[in-house]
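Let's practice the habit of predicting before peeking. Look at the sequence and jot down your guess about where helices and strands might fall. Then scroll down.
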Amino acid sequence: MTKAQTTAYLFFHCNLAFSSIAEEQRAEVIDRCYIPMLGIAQEYGIPLGVECTGWTLEEIARLRPQWLDRFSTLCAQGLAECIGSGYTQLIGPLVPSDVNCNNQRLGQRAYEHLLGQQPAIALINEQAYSSGILEHYVDHGYASILMEWDNPALAHPSWQSELRYAPQKVLDHQGRPLDLVWVQSVVFQHLQRLVHEDLELDAYLNCLKRHVGPSSRAICLYGNDAEVFNFRPGRFETEAAITLGEWQRMAQALCAVRDALGWRFCLPSQVTALNLPHAGHVLQLESSAQPVIVKKQPKYNLLRWAVTGRGDLDINTRCHRILHAMRAGVPDDADWRALCCLWASDFRTHITEQRWNRYAAALADMENKWQVSPPDNSSLLTGQTAALTMPRWIDAATPHVAARLNPRKGLAVQALSFPSLGSAPVLGTISHGDFEDIAHAADFFTGHVVLEAQGERKRTDLATVTPEMTETEQYISYSAAIPNFFCPMEKAVRLSKQRPEFSIAYRFGWQSLPVCSIRLLHLTLLPEAYDVSTLFFATHNGGSGWERFALTSPVNHTAPVSFLVSASHALGMTSGLLRIGDARHWLEVKTDLAQTALVGMIVHQPVGASWLTRVILSYREIDDTAKPNALVPPSTVTVTVAAHSKEMAADAIC
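Done guessing? Here is the structure:
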């Protein structure tokens, strides 16, 4: 019988655009981190992967061109390999498909130009994974991806633990396969702690021994930042003090793994050729509860780059406006490189003041080049119609939609139906007492805004209003000024005369903004209108194809991670569309990302014999990157909800 063999592999993430590294420190990072990193392969014969963007390679070529020569030599000797990333480190599930496509295309071009090779294995940027982005890796020549094990496994408790020690497979939306090579966060954090002298070598080796099994296995010893050894990026006050020789301690630990434990080493791309048991299973990493997976602890989720930071919502929206203008024009590769850089993740977290100011200037330059102007933020109140007398309810109908609005609750939707789906309402308000469960003894409205700031009372737009009514050939509209909100606010609900849809527009008069969460829409499905056994939602998270999720178990993307992190998951909605419904009919939520780049959230919870299902749009959230009085987000948000049925549409997703 062949003796079981444990094989180790490792790679380093090299990112000269690291958010908290100043531009003048980049040469120092190469000298203190990237050069000694190669010494592990050259001096100790331990093969390693180096993952970096095309942009980082260009910076290295500018600052230390000899590093590229040394790295290329090690690659030719089989002691190192380039792991792809893209031209910049952007969050794939948060940007549109054509941006992802160009990011990978330009990345491969940079690798070919600077290294004479195109990598066949890639690390998912920030390990922010959606099935939608896989097509871009397949289309640009990748055979394998590196992705974290821990969070997907948490979402799939039925997986056998042995799967983490062998390569598996994932499929893009066309069914094309990619090999999946695992990274384990806890394992690489142990090595990082050893190098920072928070863990002794014997204790580290004992931790690794727990991963030895009766059959052969492969395990990633490290798959994280190179800039945390012999250097500190300066993100956190709790970073370990620098002591000399951290790369030497790294090398000693890896040699001990090889010599004392008897493990062998290979390059990350070679793991797929090891013929390991338990390999080759086709896995679905994402789930309805965790539709976009992100690395490490729960505070790292999609919202981190979407609606927090110094002004993520504002800069993401402006990137969408530039993209909209580029789609209407004839952009060249320089334009796509510039846009990919503007969408890079590091500008959305712990960015330094100097780099933030330069980023703002670069963003303005691209807006000027493409003649981008902000959308119309004019008042939603026409002032041309008399205010309505105060009724208890506002009942309005067109040939395509009928609604009852509540003027005592800021024009919240009490009930709304589409004749094309039948006479019964499909969304609206679930009133206090409709659920017998005391935990859900509340009103669950549709169409409102909720603002929650730390240490402050909750603010909503559920106030008594005096609405105006306007009627055109296209719609009937009810609008009102909202009193006693955090800032001046207006709201309008419009019922279409031309198609089965309605829209809600919100206009905010922000002067400043605290660290807070702001959520809109709260579209509440009425349970009696749907077949709970076939409920689903679908959207795009960075790809060209729909990603569909069955609502067969509880989901709560809005659940806070901690007092400092206000939500746990989100949907990129990178086409501005989100569908929710059952096998017979569904609602399509539409937003203009170039007006306001919102992200989506789903809540689906059983309540006694019934259930509560909602679509919520996030405008702002709280985490460790959020800054008070940062960039004021866009003032106007318009959300349209359209009805579809199986008979009305031929879209296979539903």
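How did you do? The domain at 6-296 is CATH 3.20.110.20 (7-stranded beta/alpha barrel).
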